[in-house]
Request: fold
Amino acid sequence: MYEIGQPEAEAVAAVIASGQLFRYAGGRDAARTAAFERSLAAAMGVRHALATTSGTASLICALTGLGIGPGDEVIVPGYSFIATALAPLALGAVPVIVEIDETLTLDPAATAAAITPYTRAIIPVHMAGRPCDMAALVELARARGIPLVEDACQAVGGSWRGARLGSLGEAGAFSFNFFKNITCGEGGAVLTGDDRIFQRALIMHDGANPFFIDRSGAAQPTDAFAGMNFRISEIQAAILAIQLGRLDGILANLRRRRDILVAALADRGGWRLARSNDDAGDCGSHLALHFADEAAALGFIAHHRDAVGLVRPKDSGRHVYCNWEAVMERRPRDARLDPWRMARREITYARDMCPRTLDVLGRTVLVQVPYARTLAEVEAIARRLAGTA
Ligand SMILES: *Cc1c(COP(=O)(O)O)cnc(C)c1O
Reply:
């Protein structure tokens, strides 16, 4: 779901006309990317934002910011895009897969039980725009001294008790790819309030040039290390600046349509609306219905699939841990850099290791809120789904 049009086309044309397509020009930080980062940080209520080439790159930069590496364990939920588990692996750390609860997000009690002396980060994922239980997770993380890296790739603009998702942990990650609330083709961002995390993320994002970046006020990186290149172009930044301006309107439109569906579907027979950790902060991109069993969920989809986008999360490919083949089968990029061999204890995976996650995902139907439809059309869809039309 995203919205893009003439303003973005004009902004791209202006970048091309300016001849200034790159973040760096003549050894200087160009204007658009830096300006977008400042606007994003302000909009999200954090000190620093760093634009990157993807959500995956943002997770890698955030984990690098925290110093995550070989021997470290990182807790991830069993329901997320595979990238959440690939990011720690890229750094030599190992993902520890933990159950979700009925909110479709990381279960705080299961998270507490999975912590070991080697746990160095927890990645709560705000899946389908739905906020995690940040009260419990922040309390747990503080009590155990473990940083939180929020994967807010699917929840850009959402909030929890009024604070934007991605701003509540030590760091947060956004994605701006095809499926996300705002887009620039491919892209992402790291959010953090911590100067040191930011500086290390900055170096990782551009190992060659971190000193070029103009950070009026912010200290320049002093401890360079061998980083990478996850820079975006000024073309992407020009698109993102306009997309950011659209974000709250997009969320308002989604939530208005979501509310129509909720009103029609609440308390009807056959399903329950999934509990949310924050209804007001939920992005409104999806509605989750829980059915008594898998057959009922599949029956609902078969009956209504022409009316609106419906997906059973269990069938959503690499969003379910047992379909993360490279992780489940512990296949490192290079046997000489095997994160599982560098781990401090044996970490194994099995298809049935998170039975509650599979049960919840199998009985749930996600309704994709029909953003492009008029309110009257959404009302008609709601009546059809509710069985009253
Ligand atoms: C999309 C997504 C990512 C990765 O984003 P990319 O921009 O595709 O790298 C990570 N985590 C979640 C939960 C996502 O949905």
